[in-house]
Structure formats: structure tokens, C-alpha cells
Design brief:
With 479 residues, the chain is of the alpha/beta class. Helices cover 46% and strands 17% of the residues. It folds into 2 domains: 162 residues, DNAb Helicase, Chain A; 283 residues, 3-Layer(aba) Sandwich (Rossmann fold). Strands 7-6-8-9-3-10-11-12-13 form a 9-stranded mixed sheet, sandwiched between helices. Strand 12 and strand 13 form a beta hairpin. The protein is globular and about 80 Å long.
Amino acid sequence: MSGPPPISAPPQDLEAEQATLGACLMEADAIHRARVLLEDNGEDFYSLQHQILWRTLCRMSEAGTPADPVTVQNALQNAGELDAVGGRSYLTALQDSGPTAAMVEHYAEIVRRKATLRALMQAGDKVKRLAQEATAESMPAILAAASEAVERAAGRGTYRRPAQSARALLENDRHVEWLVKDAIPRGRLVILAGESGDGKSMAAMALCDATAREGGLWLGMSVDGPAPSLYVDIEQGEDLLSERVKLLAYSEVALDHVHFVCDPEWRLGPAFALAMRPLVQQYRPALVVLDCLAELLPDDCDENSNSDMRPIMRALALFAREHDCTVLVVHHYRKTQAFGSNQPAARLRGASAIRDVADAVLTVNHTRNENERLIVHTKARCGRLLPSFLVRFDETPEGTLALTHIGTPNASAVGKAAACDALMLEALSPGRRSRSQLVAIAAEHKIGEKSCDVSLKRLAGEQKIAPEKVAKEVFYESL
């Protein structure tokens, strides 16, 4: 593979270029998807050998010729360009480097972005040269030429994805499949969040047990099993995980079909999908649990930065779709704000991209009953939001732990208040909202207008939110 670029080199990402080409050698459709983002002339690639290889792939695609290391080698040999791209060994190395065809658009987008930056630098050099040569008479022509150069460079950053008709969208529509009926979609990115000590990890481990069973139940909801699971954890350690497996009384089938990864060196990032790939191919899991997000982030990643977190969350979403397995990310609340003694604010910690990219979000919340947890379904991209419900963490006579669904909080005034408080704080986490908007959100969760107003008044009194009256409408903002 190519070595790292010199420090003075213009913007580039040789690994993304290699991943794009390697993915195209694995699957013919990957070439079509990458060509939507990249120019056929190869100029989006920084490496000359990659430019030659990309042009060859595009010609073969245009001619309807399947592209694999053998056919591409023949095409390059016939054109006298095989040695220029590094020979047969380089083609094989590209394919064996671990790219995934499903992520080719992600790789190609990085290549295109770097090409756009290089083009802007070149445009800047041209504008500088024109400015140095400018005279009073040539100013209009120079301004026009400078504007054209910058616009042409910026135009490289635009997408060229073709439009689809409504009929084509309907014909390509895929029916949603559920891992957990109406709550957790299969092959999607899901977040399970709560405050420290709320039982998030226990709930996630219980889901792995339920997934391994035939006709399993999780928090009272049916699970589409039996299927294996992978649980990636670098926080609890093998000893604590072992104790929790005993505490949850894993079924015999779960003991053989739930697999744990406890390597403290594992981190999310470009190498994560490559590291996970052999495990996914070996076990074929329906569920991958990542516990927890903060511990799995690279040291140089800022959890509060959208520019850092969005690529990581998008990569996880792509990974879930590629392998048709649900990726469940265990995550924390941003901070604890007491309601009474222990009611957490329903706000995810970190950048908004964490929630934005996820397909579903469920939160685990304390109630005034020490053994009860309120489960709030706060985001459902693939279906409708479920009503909030209560779960009890019960110790059985055998000394194990059972997570028991005990119904909706409507049966409990405390539970209902907690549900409404959590929902209002979650709704306000992105920013300011009007009372009418909050009432509409509460109605979607089958919470009445009066209960919503009582919750807003209570939260304002506890200085968790701030009301502001504008004309005839009241707006609320979280503090």
C-alpha cells in the first residue's frame, strides 16, 4: 500500500482512495454508486496510479464488463498500464485491505471532498496570480475569471445523484423488519440511554438473552429470535460481565450464542468496521451492542463536536445496514438534574449528531420507586413512537434479576409525571419550542394537555426550563 503523504502535500486521503477502489473490485454495483460522486476522468484521486485504475474501472463499467482483479488486470495489461498501477499484487492488496462495498459512497465522499479542497487551493493560487497581474483596465475581466475559477472548484463538491420518481421510490421500498416489535428495527442504529446506574447495561444484556431465545421477550415486547449477538464492552471487564450473566440467569442457548468482546484497545473509528468484519462473518449476529459510547471513542475525538461524532455515527449506521444487524449503542445522559431526589433530565450527552443519525432512541429513567424504571421511546424513524411504560427490576427467589414489564405509567400518577417530565426535557434538548409544539408532542405519547402544562410548570419551578411569553404564545427553553 502507498505510504503516508509528505507533510507539505495538498489535501488527500490515500486510504479512502484505496478503500473506494477496493470496494469497486468487490462488487459491480459499487462502481455505479461511486461514479455518482466521482468524475470518470480520475482527477478526484490524488494518486496517479489510482487515477489510472479508476479510469479503467469507469471504462469497464460503461462497457458493461464485470470488474474484478482478474478482468481489471487484463484491461490494464492490454492498455500497457499494469505496471503503472503497481501490478497484480497491488490489485489483490486493494481487495484484501478490508473495504466493504456497502460503504463505497462513504469512501468516495471523502475522496471527493479532498479533491474539492485541492481544487479550491488551485483556484486560490490562480486568483492570487491574476491579482498580481491586474491593471485598472483588466479589473472586470480578472474579477470574472477569479469568480469562475472559484465557482468551478466549488462545483466539484456538489452531488450528482440522479432524481427518482415517486413510483421508483415505492417500488424500491423495503418493509421494516423488527428485532424488537415496533421498538427496535433490524439493521438499524439504535441508542439506549440513561443516567449512570439506571440499568442500561443490564437491559442491553437482557436483550441479548432474549434475542438468543425462540419467542423471547424483552421488557414485555416480543423479540425476533433466535439469533446470535455480539456485545462489545471495554468498561465493565470480563469479571463483572460474568457476574451479570449469572445475575440475569442467561438461558442455555444464550450462553452459546451471546459473544462478548472485552479488548480494552477497541475504539470506534475507521478501523472499527474492519476489526468487526471477521466477527460478524463468523457469528452472523442480529444484534451488536456497543457499551458504552463514551468509552469506545478515540482519544482525539470530541464527544461534543458534531464534526467528530457525525462520521462515527454514520459509519455505525452504514455498518448496521451492510450486515443487516441492529447496532445498539449504550449512552449516557449529558448530566443529572434532580427531580425530587433522582429524576434525570432526558437529554443525551454530547453532540446533537449522536441522536440525529440514530434510527431509534429509548431512554431508561429512574422513578420514585427504587426498583422501577420508566422506558421512554423518544425517537422512531421507522415507525410510531410507543407509549412510555414501566419496568421493574425484581430479585427472584433464586437470587437472580428479572426485568418485568408492569404497564404504562397511566396506572401510576408518579410514573405518568415522570414520563411527561422526561418527554418535555427531551423535546427541548435540541432548542426552544412553543407550548403548542410541546402539547402536540405530548399528545403523540398519549399525554393530555393538562398533564403537559403541569409538567412544564413543575420543570420551570425547579429551574430546569425557562418560559418566555412572546405575543400570545409561551416558549420554553432548557437551562
